[in-house]
Design goal:
single chain; globular; mainly alpha; binds zinc ion; zinc-finger; zinc; DNA-binding
Amino acid sequence: MGKGHRRCEICHINEAWPREEKLLFTSFPLNPDRCREWLKRVGNDELVDLPIEKLHERRNLCSNHFRREDFNKAGNRLNRDAVPSLNLIAPPLTDEQLLPFPQHIYKPSESRGKLYSCTSYFRAVSPALLGSYWS
Ligand SMILES: [Zn+2]
């Protein structure tokens, strides 16, 4: 995957592909409840096994899957509670398929088995990512 170019997990449109209409790409929410709802609607059970921090960092949906009212007035940011509802191509995941979610990133070298919270992970790795979405 090309570095820096986001890709939609539903229609696989790449941010870099030329097109007439400008699409907005939004990463998966860090909030477990909202992220679970996104995963359910995207319908790809391979994503369930990824840590929620990775989903937030690397995986995106394009604006083809959200209604106009899911965005703010300027149309450049998704509302906090928006869930994908348009142009969904896979059947929703079942509760059973969603059972492994949420996974988290571990840092075994420093403290074996200790669960790192999303917040401390992002504070350590990339402060810029904190608060760039959903705020
Ligand atoms: Zn898409």
